[in-house]
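[Primary structure, fold]
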Amino acid sequence: MSKKDLYRPNVAMIIVSNNYPSKKEIFLAQRNDLLDVWQFPQGGIDEGEEVKEALFRELLEEIGTDEVEVIAEFPEWISYDFPPRIAETMRPFIGQTQRYFLVKLQENATINIQTEKPEFCDYKFVTADEVLYLSASFKKDVYESVINYFKKEGLL
């Protein structure tokens, strides 16, 4: 297995409320399996699945709606390593390589984190700075890179 194959292909999304762009409120969810860990919704890309297909599937699976408008896409894959306790459960992967999207909830979208297989126990809308304060330490560099890119593009 090459080093590239050790990173699980993944899609992740920065979700802004339907008040965007007048308010730049970012969706952040608290994991139900890791104490006080907040993150963006994300998930693996299935074999043969297109990245945007995975985006909409993961939205539906994790927040109960895929009623979003894609605003922008981060221009490259970005990776991070799992901490040891998570790496144990994700073998053979040592981390994830992700494709990020900035998406806006449509006016009629209803968030429901009590999905068939809930991953989150709570959620809130926060500022970009609060995302970096609340997020897991092993994801901070990725979150900071992606948020800074979208800020530089005038989107956040």
Summary: The radius of gyration is 15 Å. Strands lie at 7-16, 26-31, 38-39, 42-44, 68-73, 78-81, 95-105, 120-126.
